[in-house]
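seq:
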Amino acid sequence: ERNVSVELTTSSATASESSDYSQLNHFVLTFSTGLSSQCAIVKILDDTVLEANQSFSITLSALSNPEVVYIPQETDVAEITIREDSFDYIEVAFEKDFYHVSDEAQWLQVCIVIVKGELERNVTVELDTIANNNQTNQPLDSDILEAHMLHFLPGQSSYPPNNKQCELITIINDDIVEGNETFELTLSTTLYPKVVIATSNTTVFISPEFVDTVAIGFSEELYMVQEGDGSVEVCVNIDSGSLQREVVVSLATYPNTAEDSVDFSSLSVDLTFGAANSQQCIEISILDDNCLEDTQNFQMDLSSRDPAVTFTPGRQNSSVDILEDMDYVEVKLDSASHTILSEDDTMGSGNSVEVCLLVTGCFERNFSVNLVTSSRTAVYGSDYPLQSMRVEFEYEVGQPSCGSSGNCTQMCIDVFAEYDEILEYNEEFALRIVPLDASVKPQDPNTTTITIIDNDYVSIGLAGNKYQTTDDAGYVQVCAELVDGELERPVTVLMTTMDGTATADYVPLMSKELNFVSGQSDHMDRTQCLNLTIMDDSILENTEEFYVHLNYTPMEDRAVVFIPPLNSNSTIYIQEDQSDSVEIGFLQPQYYITECDQCTLEVCVGLLEGTLEKSVTVKVESQDGSSEYGLDYNVVYLNSTLNESQSVSCFDVTILDDTCLEPSQNLSLHLSSYEDAVMVEDHPSTTVTIFEDSLDFVEVSLLKEVYEIANEDDEIGDGGRIVVCTVLQGCLHRKAPFRFFTREDTASEGSDYVPLDLTLNFGSESMTQSGSGEAAFLQSGSDYISSGDYSSGALFEEDDLICVVIQSQSDSILENSERFSIFLDMLDPAVHIEQPSNSAITIVDNDYVEVGMQYNEYITTEGEGSLQVCVEVVSGVLERNISVELTTYSETASSRDYRPLNGEFLVFEPGQVLQCTYVNIIDDSILEWNETIILRLHTNLSSIVRIVSEKSEIIILEDDTDFVEMNMNSTRFLVAECDCNISICVEFTDGILERNVSVSLSTEQGTATNTDDFLEIGGREIKFTRQNAAGDLICTELSLMDDKKTEYVEHLSVVLQGSEERIARIGPRNYSSVAIVDNDFVEVGLEQEDLQSIEIHGGMNTVTACVAMRTGVLERPVQVDIFTIDRGYCKAGFDYVIPNRPYVSFLPGEAGGVKRCFNITVVDDVIVEDDEYFSLMIQPSSADESSVQVVMGEDSIGVSIAEDSRDELNMTMTVTSTSISEELETMAQQVCIQRSRVILEKEVVAFISTVDVNATAGEDYIPLKNETLVFDNTVFKICLDLVAIDDEEFEGIETFGLMLESNDPAVVITNGYI
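struct:
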């Protein structure tokens, strides 16, 4: 009825964690209340490797609280066996399709290879020999193998070199003269279908040691044939030796530059030679593809599987050259004519035209043609740049061949024209094809005419865009010039005049021609001018103008002449002299007008003397007199213009009405001239007088209809005072009288207020008053000005206030408000009294009472419901209603703790002294401290109600039913071992906090120990505050320590406890289990540097290697795997053997310095070979990869095996004859060097030389000079020719010697000199 946990861990027996199953590393199963079983899944992996049944185990152990979880010993481990499935297999076969061996070879090595698959178990195949049709006489020719077993071991696979097993079969020379013999080898197995036999048998050929051979070769090293001949005859001859039986030689062709089925028909034939025929010939078909191409070639090879057949040096291969016949291609131009512009307008340089050469016919080689130009009207160098060009047609492999069916391809070039910037007529030049190859035939059109269309132009424009002259100058010269370009042909432009303001002032032109001719280049030649006649009309006038326009000539020149727009027009200005003058002035010296609003007065300026023939302008300006611009008139500032048709110019002066009472006013107007020829000195000014109208007035009204005044001024202890004011609207620039007076209502004169009757007379310069009362003047934007401070310099403006002072009388009686009135009376018809003309003045009582809270503090409990609170009158007597307001404010309490009062009104009636209300208290079921509410008293009648005790506190006591719940945030932590801290968190899981509570955390040891693996926590406080809510975490640090030891996972627990159990309860997650995963490791390495051993003849030797633990401390066992890698011919199982258990183990408690050693057995394979070498390597086992590291540079060493000096190779030298006749010059005898039939795993080198005795090398025989003889495992005999030379001299028998030597210590020469 509580949670308990166990853990499962897998460990390997024969199965591998990485390839056979997925590892469970401390996998946790948790049993909770009511749960009787829990399961885990182990994934089984198929590695497709042929292997025996594999096994591994699963160990069950208690994770936490081992004292309450019992695991019976017989059920704490489960063994799991993985049975091999039926789909894994290996496939084996003979290494060779057949074997060929000499009867002198002594033995034959036969190998079985794994073609497909991989092994992790032992498998066996059976090798047998079977005589073939009684040709092989066992046991005279070979050993009899019956059910010989070959064993494949774990780790072998289809990847070389560890992919085969071999067996030696002894070959016996029975000293019987006989032909080739054969026997069969068969392969079988009893493990099908786990082992599949790919090839179940093979044949062994035993040949006599000395086989008669013939030398066969092609009759020619190179055959040549014309493409059109249709075929070529190829012969194969026996060049040396004779046949007593038939032999078969295969001939096959291979494409080179010639293509099969295009240039020739390939073949592969067998040629049979015998005693009767020493030559065989065949025909090979040659195909004509009608393509232009180079000489093409294909190859021929000879081959034979007959050991009696050898091939003549240099004649086993031959080739056939197919010579080109009379094939050709045709080339022509794409058109007989082309056109080209002399200039590319977009690039500003010479333009080009594309000319294409079209090829008809097939070609499979490169060829070239020349394109050559010749001048006609165009000139090479100045009009076009091309003189000749070589055009290459390149053949691309795979280019389609079209024969004579049409154009196979085309090659295009750009032909350019030179841009000479000269305007000229169109010109021509020719471009023709000149072949460079007899196989290229030009076709029509082979010449094209290229016309250069001139698109140059010249720019012609007027030399200036304006000319100036006077009306008495007589003429003006106007010129056109060649602005841009050069001419090699004539062009014409037209000059025309057009009227402007000048009409009868010049002699017009109508399309006058200007001719520019070829060759014009210097400045004078590039300009053409005309004189235009100017006429003087003796009339006074302004400067006048007319226009000159340049235009295009007839159509033929429009395309080649450009007239720039800025140079196509010019203006001719005719200036007038300045000898005339006029007199101008006002027509009246004085003007009059009555004041009006926006009315106008016409004022005129006229020509007083002289005559006008052009427009003249004078300036008119106004100047203030007693009037002011903007108030009495609009300012005048204007120009007045007169001309030949208008000798008088009038304008309006606008008069303004400012509605002010004022006397007549005036202003003046003044005249001035802009030109010296206009005189204004005689009548330069005039005066305007403005008479006042009778409609101006001012309006006066009282500022407010209602005023209040206190019955007592608290500052002076006497009656109150107020100022009652009028508003003056309008402009007053003279005296205007009006009257203030008071009248009783509910208030009485003398007892409640001081009566007033006052006449005020205001003017522009003074103010006077009469009657009883005090007057005041408030100027707009200024402070209060008493009547005594008023000065005549202050003019009355709109919004100025004219005021009187009103004073109440204090009767010291508490009573209701009383009222009286003040009136305004008109004494002048120009002063209009407007509403309000009277104001009511209320005398307000200003007595008060004092109120306050009944108690300063109230105490209640959270669950009691409501609380009564009261307010009382502290001093004073009420004879009217008053009200106060109560409002609650939270101090520590919130809206969850009470229902707030928000300005609740309490009303006191006359005679009442106490008023009460209720505050509702709410139980919020939240764990909190005692809380406080503030009651605050206030009123809106602060003038008559004064608050003396405005605040009271309500204290709410907490009840004893609230609590919160805490739990561990996680019940299990999985962390890597380190010198570090991890966070352990407590979760606030239930309840609401408005106060602080605390819980504590403590650690309990499991397999982890204090001070070694962690630092103990003893009752560490975890505090939650009112800011925390359900779901919040409070964390603390648990310090972990790395003890630098390699060990299993260790455990400890962190327990949660409550310090205040009533209010802080601990939930079901009252602890956390911490699993510390070890990440320490030990370092290991191979202790030795490279090892050396030596073969012991016919026996075995051992060499010792050690794996050392370099650093670290173990608290659990670890394993280091050992493996080797073969280098060169060195092979495991043949040259050396490693232990059956290729690993070493280190145990708990061991530390750096411990080592494990093992022996490697070196086997003598009795094979002549070089010193051999393999690599010894180590790596952590798959289960210990994280716990074991191999020191860099110590993961491998080399092991060398020195060759046994007693492994020998016998070598002997024989000759076919010890005498050679001079008569057989160039006929050869042979010397043969033969080695013994032992296995070679290296090349063995010997040297043979001739030595003069009484014969002379070079004169009597062809010498051998240290000829190198190389033997490997397939070469047993090497023969060389001995050739005598006939020196045509009579002499006796001459002798030379043969000497055989070798530097290889394994070579024993038995007949080293002949």
